[in-house]
Amino acid sequence: MIGTIINVIAVIVGASIGALAGNRLPAKVQETVLNGLGLLTLTIGVSMAIGSANILIPMFSVLLGGLVGELLRIDDGLTWLGNKAEERWGKRLGQGKVAGWSVTQAFVTSSLIFCVGPMTILGSIQDGLLGDYQLLAVKSTLDGFAAIPFAASLGPGVLLSAVTVAVVQGGIAGLSMILGAGLGAVSRETPWVIELTATGGVLILGIGLSLLNLKKIRVANLLPAIVFAPLIVALLQGLGVRY
User: Fold this and answer.
1) Residue 213 Cα to chain centre, angstroms
2) pLDDT 10s digit of each residue in the chain, 243 long?
3) Model confidence, pTM
4) DSSP for the chain?
5) I want to staple 147 with a disulfide (CB 3.0 to 4.6 A). Which of 6, 14, 208, 209 is the partner?
6) Own/partner pairs for 34-38, CB < 8 Å, 24+ apart?
7) How far is Cα 13 from Cα 51, in angstroms, rounded to an integer?
8) Which sign, positive or negative, has the C-alpha torsion 147, 148, 151, 154?
């Protein structure tokens, strides 16, 4: 769990620096930084998505994940949680909105960005299975620096994403410890990791579009897709289907 703890601290420190700096940055500067982050997020999403060995797997994962996510109303749940946090801590965190973003929006968006991706899954599994937190240490560095401009542009709500990082990464690491060797050897070349990464890239693209205000997508409702991706790979492998 050491890797998760390091990651949480990195997000808190980075977001705190960004939140303090954000109040001193002109609105135009905040908007420009936010647009730059949106473009970078799109780039990351594309680079992840094109790695799929069979684009039909991410496609069906997103379709099935979207159906389940809408039924479970995940986005509504995260929004409710963010609203409650804003009601309770909004004044303590500072200005309720920065560059037009509420604490709730900042919380949901940054949580998705910090928790959707191969480094989250791989790093947490390695941390839980082997006690190897090197990958999460690298991710922590990236997240810490990314949290600075995000908090400067989106506001102090980014601080709350540290809770999501703790729950998601800690949960995966804990589950990995319980399952033990049953997961087998895991690497970036593992088929289910490749398709999970590609599916995560599609979700990251949705975040990028939202950051650029091109299209507001309920990305949280697509999160089950990253569960369906490895399941579909396992099903195809079990049936002996080449993909």
Assistant:
1) 19
2) 788 999 999 999 988 888 887 667 677 776 787 788 788 878 888 988 999 999 999 999 999 999 999 999 888 887 777 666 656 655 544 544 444 556 777 787 788 778 876 678 767 877 887 777 877 887 888 788 888 888 887 777 788 889 889 998 999 888 878 875 565 666 667 888 889 888 888 988 888 888 788 888 888 888 899 889 989 999 998 888 876
3) 0.73
4) -HHHHHHHHHHHHHHHHHHHHHTTS-HHHHHHHHHHHHHHHHHHHHHHHTT-S-THHHHHHHHHHHHHHHHHTHHHHHHHHHHHHHHHHHHHH--SEETTEEHHHHHHHHHHHHHSSHHHHHHHHHHHHH---HHHHHHHHHHHHHHHHHHHHH-GGGGGHHHHHHHHHHHHHHHHHHHGGGG----TTSHHHHHHHHHHHHHHHHHHHHHTTS----GGGGTTHHHHHHHHHHHHHHHT---
5) 14
6) 34/99, 34/153, 34/154, 34/211, 35/211, 35/212, 36/149, 37/149, 37/150, 37/153, 37/211, 38/208, 38/209, 38/211, 38/212
7) 32
8) negative
